[in-house]
Amino acid sequence: LRRMQPMNLDTTFKTATYRYVSALIPDCPREGRDHTPVQPSVRIKSKTPLSGHHPAMLVCSVYDFFPSEIKVSWLRDGQEVTSDVTSTEVMPNGDWYYQTHSYLEYTPRSGENISCVVEHASLKEPLITDWGLRHLHLFDKPEGFYTI
Protein backbone atom coordinates (compact mmCIF):
# COMPACT_ATOMS: atom_id res chain seq x y z
CA LEU A 1 0.00 0.00 0.00
CA ARG A 2 2.83 2.44 0.72
CA ARG A 3 3.98 2.06 -2.90
CA MET A 4 0.52 3.23 -3.98
CA GLN A 5 0.57 6.41 -1.89
CA PRO A 6 2.28 8.57 -4.58
CA MET A 7 -0.35 7.44 -7.09
CA ASN A 8 -3.16 8.22 -4.65
CA LEU A 9 -1.78 11.73 -4.24
CA ASP A 10 -1.43 12.21 -8.02
CA THR A 11 -4.62 13.90 -9.24
CA THR A 12 -3.95 12.93 -12.87
CA PHE A 13 -3.72 9.26 -11.90
CA LYS A 14 -6.87 9.49 -9.76
CA THR A 15 -8.82 11.22 -12.53
CA ALA A 16 -7.75 8.62 -15.10
CA THR A 17 -8.59 5.80 -12.68
CA TYR A 18 -12.00 7.31 -11.99
CA ARG A 19 -12.75 7.60 -15.71
CA TYR A 20 -11.72 3.99 -16.29
CA VAL A 21 -13.73 2.64 -13.35
CA SER A 22 -16.78 4.81 -14.10
CA ALA A 23 -16.83 3.43 -17.66
CA LEU A 24 -17.04 -0.06 -16.15
CA ILE A 25 -19.39 0.93 -13.31
CA PRO A 26 -21.67 3.80 -14.36
CA ASP A 27 -22.80 4.58 -10.78
CA CYS A 28 -19.24 4.84 -9.45
CA PRO A 29 -19.13 7.77 -6.98
CA ARG A 30 -16.72 10.62 -7.66
CA GLU A 31 -14.03 11.09 -4.99
CA GLY A 32 -14.99 13.87 -2.61
CA ARG A 33 -18.66 13.67 -3.57
CA ASP A 34 -21.30 11.00 -3.10
CA HIS A 35 -19.12 9.21 -0.53
CA THR A 36 -20.67 8.20 2.75
CA PRO A 37 -18.60 9.40 5.73
CA VAL A 38 -16.67 6.58 7.40
CA GLN A 39 -16.29 6.52 11.19
CA PRO A 40 -12.75 6.64 12.55
CA SER A 41 -11.19 4.04 14.80
CA VAL A 42 -9.30 5.45 17.78
CA ARG A 43 -6.43 4.01 19.77
CA ILE A 44 -4.58 5.55 22.71
CA LYS A 45 -1.20 4.27 23.79
CA SER A 46 1.64 5.40 26.01
CA LYS A 47 5.02 6.09 24.43
CA THR A 48 6.85 6.23 27.77
CA PRO A 49 6.47 4.36 31.08
CA LEU A 50 3.62 5.52 33.30
CA SER A 51 5.63 4.97 36.48
CA GLY A 52 6.56 7.71 38.90
CA HIS A 53 6.13 11.38 38.14
CA HIS A 54 8.17 11.51 34.93
CA PRO A 55 6.46 13.16 31.97
CA ALA A 56 4.61 10.64 29.88
CA MET A 57 3.61 10.84 26.23
CA LEU A 58 0.18 9.62 25.20
CA VAL A 59 -0.61 9.15 21.54
CA CYS A 60 -4.16 9.25 20.22
CA SER A 61 -4.11 7.59 16.80
CA VAL A 62 -7.16 8.04 14.61
CA TYR A 63 -7.41 5.73 11.60
CA ASP A 64 -9.55 4.85 8.59
CA PHE A 65 -11.88 7.85 8.39
CA PHE A 66 -13.42 9.70 5.46
CA PRO A 67 -13.67 12.58 4.63
CA SER A 68 -10.36 14.04 5.78
CA GLU A 69 -11.74 16.90 7.91
CA ILE A 70 -11.44 15.96 11.59
CA LYS A 71 -10.83 17.50 15.02
CA VAL A 72 -8.84 15.69 17.71
CA SER A 73 -8.50 17.13 21.22
CA TRP A 74 -7.64 15.99 24.75
CA LEU A 75 -9.53 16.15 28.06
CA ARG A 76 -8.07 15.85 31.56
CA ASP A 77 -10.79 15.06 34.09
CA GLY A 78 -13.36 16.54 31.69
CA GLN A 79 -11.46 19.79 30.98
CA GLU A 80 -9.91 20.49 27.57
CA VAL A 81 -6.11 20.39 27.52
CA THR A 82 -4.41 22.82 25.14
CA SER A 83 -0.82 22.96 26.39
CA ASP A 84 1.74 20.24 25.64
CA VAL A 85 -0.35 18.96 22.72
CA THR A 86 1.03 18.41 19.22
CA SER A 87 -0.61 16.76 16.23
CA THR A 88 0.38 15.46 12.84
CA GLU A 89 -1.22 16.65 9.65
CA VAL A 90 -4.06 14.48 8.37
CA MET A 91 -2.40 11.89 6.13
CA PRO A 92 -3.84 9.61 3.45
CA ASN A 93 -3.62 5.91 4.29
CA GLY A 94 -3.16 5.07 0.62
CA ASP A 95 -6.56 3.37 0.48
CA TRP A 96 -8.79 6.48 0.17
CA TYR A 97 -9.07 6.77 3.94
CA TYR A 98 -7.11 9.02 6.30
CA GLN A 99 -5.24 8.98 9.61
CA THR A 100 -3.89 11.50 12.11
CA HIS A 101 -2.08 11.35 15.44
CA SER A 102 -2.21 13.67 18.45
CA TYR A 103 0.41 13.66 21.21
CA LEU A 104 -0.07 14.75 24.81
CA GLU A 105 2.90 15.16 27.15
CA TYR A 106 1.87 15.10 30.79
CA THR A 107 2.85 14.05 34.30
CA PRO A 108 0.59 11.22 35.51
CA ARG A 109 -1.45 11.89 38.65
CA SER A 110 -3.25 9.23 40.62
CA GLY A 111 -6.96 8.98 39.84
CA GLU A 112 -7.02 11.38 36.90
CA ASN A 113 -8.72 10.51 33.65
CA ILE A 114 -7.27 11.48 30.28
CA SER A 115 -9.48 11.26 27.19
CA CYS A 116 -9.00 11.74 23.48
CA VAL A 117 -11.98 13.43 21.80
CA VAL A 118 -12.64 12.98 18.07
CA GLU A 119 -15.15 15.06 16.12
CA HIS A 120 -15.94 13.97 12.56
CA ALA A 121 -18.74 14.21 9.99
CA SER A 122 -19.47 10.48 10.42
CA LEU A 123 -20.24 10.91 14.13
CA LYS A 124 -23.48 12.27 15.59
CA GLU A 125 -21.61 13.23 18.75
CA PRO A 126 -17.91 13.37 19.68
CA LEU A 127 -16.20 10.01 20.14
CA ILE A 128 -14.50 10.01 23.55
CA THR A 129 -11.82 7.41 24.23
CA ASP A 130 -10.55 7.27 27.82
CA TRP A 131 -7.08 6.49 29.08
CA GLY A 132 -6.50 6.37 32.81
CA LEU A 133 -3.95 4.91 35.16
CA ARG A 134 -6.76 2.74 36.50
CA HIS A 135 -6.72 0.81 33.19
CA LEU A 136 -3.29 -0.56 34.06
CA HIS A 137 -4.73 -2.14 37.20
CA LEU A 138 -8.13 -3.30 35.93
CA PHE A 139 -7.10 -4.96 32.71
CA ASP A 140 -4.37 -7.46 32.08
CA LYS A 141 -3.91 -6.34 28.46
CA PRO A 142 -1.25 -4.52 26.47
CA GLU A 143 -1.36 -0.77 26.89
CA GLY A 144 -3.93 1.24 25.00
CA PHE A 145 -6.92 0.36 22.85
CA TYR A 146 -9.54 0.98 25.49
CA THR A 147 -12.60 2.64 24.01
CA ILE A 148 -15.27 3.54 26.53
From TrEMBL:
Pfam families: C1-set (PF07654). PROSITE patterns: IG_LIKE. Residues 40-129 form the Ig-like domain. InterPro entries: Ig-like_dom, Ig-like_dom_sf, Ig-like_fold, Ig_C1-set, MHC/Immunoglobulin. It comes from the Eukaryota. SUPFAM superfamilies: Immunoglobulin. PANTHER family: HLA CLASS II HISTOCOMPATIBILITY ANTIGEN, DRB1 BETA CHAIN, MHC CLASS II-RELATED. This is Ig-like domain-containing protein. It comes from Astatotilapia calliptera.
